[in-house]
Amino acid sequence: MAFDFKKEYKEFYLPKDTPSIVTVPPVNYLAVRGEGDPNEEGGAYQQAIGLLYGIAYTIKMSKKGDHRIEGYFDYVVPPLEGFWRQEGVTGIDYAHKEKFQWISVIRLPDFVTRADFYWAIQEATNKKKMDFSSVEFWTYDEGLCVQCMHSGSYDDEPATVERMHRFLEAQGFALDLTDQRLHHEIYLSDARKTPPENLKTVIRHPIRKTE
Hints:
The chain is α+β, with helices and mostly antiparallel strands. It contains five helices and nine strands. It has helices spanning 5-8, 10-13, 44-60, 114-128, 157-170; strands at 20-24, 27-35, 80-85, 101-107, 136-140, 143-151, 173-175, 183-187, 200-209. Helices cover 26% and strands 28% of the residues. The termini are far apart. Strands 1, 2, 3, 4, 5, 6, 7, 8 and 9 form a nine-stranded antiparallel beta sheet that branches.
């Protein structure tokens, strides 16, 4: 049975639809940075997703080639995630998606080293004849956060975010969104195939204990 991060780490991938506090440990990701409206057809965000999955599956399928990754075990490629910000805005202004600055990511298994990552970049470049140079090996220590499962359209997220913020304040915490601590979403549904009302998205915001 392939290792499934969503099932093995339910605390981080399958929270309830009521807000909760969580401490997220450092995680290694494949990452591509960019800006602009994620809904733009053929735009930078959609191109970034293609690059991420190209490297993610090169690593996963390394078991069938000559490159042996020490400690490798079979696994399900984790879901797409995104970190989002807008210049001069605390949180997210959903009415101005063209102003998004984003880091699109896919989690890496812990056994993947930087050397394995660089091998995958070269392997995918050679096989797919594409430029993967914008893909990074990125470690992010998210730390103390509030999170909640959001059901429905991305445009309806503000209502869930508001519930999260009321909850964290009642628990003695304050929102801690900065240029380094970002609005985080984990996409458990494929938006290309899932009706908006059925989408499942984990929303996570960084917080700190109030003085």
